[in-house]
Amino acid sequence: MPAPTDRTGAHAWTALVLTALAGAVDGAGFLGLGQQFVANQTGNAVLLAVALSGELTGRSDGLSAVGPLYSLAGFAVGAVAASLATRRHVLTSFGVPVLLVAEVALLALAGLAGSTELAIGLAAFAMGVQSIHAARIGLSGVTTTVLTGTLIALSVNLSGDRDDLRSARLQAGVWAVYLVGAGLGSVLAHQVSFSAVCWSAAGVAALMAAAGFVEDRYVRSRA
């Protein structure tokens, strides 16, 4: 009987690459889509609350609730759809990497979107799907799109045993690549366009999906 395959290392690399993609799209979206986040929904919740409070109190601070609403809705719909699809075995027979295929399509469409609101919604939809991909491959303390929980897990693991410290290294790496990705995404959005960032991210996600299918097929052949 073949020995079980340890996929921890592959999943860690997947988490790092996808987190960098989320950072790039977030940085590009903030710079190119009217200072809106598409992955960091905690930030969107704050932007929405501040915009609504300004409307209610008559304060003029230039913030609109429209962008955060599109992003929050897109992310939520993407996460729910991906969760239901994999839970109800619509996609699981093809393997969890098929979620990355959906992300590729959504990012490509976001790059083609004719309006800012549609681009925000589609990119956020892609990030919602990506967050469920991270959950389905079982990355403890890492979502690839929301980093506050990762920071909490990192803080806890720094005071733990050897296994906890191993997890802490991954979580620290996730924070580092998000920061680098956000910086690079903002530069590319400024120099070229938000669409260029989306298409570049879609290309990288496509490579990750292909690698995931190859790995999944290899593991199934050894089962």
Describe the structure in your own words.
α2 runs antiparallel to α3, α3 (66-87) packs parallel to α5 (116-136) and α6 runs antiparallel to α7. The protein is built from eight helices and no strands. Mean pLDDT is 85; it is low at 1-5. The longest helix is centred in the last third of the chain and has 30 residues, at 162-191. With 223 residues, the chain is mainly alpha-helical. The protein is globular, with a radius of gyration of 18 Å.
Give the SSE layout.
Blueprint: H1 8-32, H2 41-57, H3 66-87, H4 98-112, H5 116-136, H6 148-157, H7 162-191, H8 194-222
Q: How would you classify the helix and strand content by structural class?
A: mainly alpha
Mean pLDDT: 85
What's the Cα radius of gyration?
Answer: 18 Å
Number of helices: 8
Pattern of helices and strands: HHHHHHHH
Number of distinct beta strands: 0
Q: What overall form do the CA principal axes indicate? A: globular
Main beta sheet strand tally, sense and closure:
none
Give the helix level as a range of percent. Answer: over 70%
- Strand content range: under 5%
* End-to-end CA span: 8 Å
Low-confidence stretches: 1-5
Quick recap:
The protein is mostly helical and 223 residues long.
List its traits.
223 residues; mainly alpha; 8 helices; 0% strand; globular; disordered N terminus
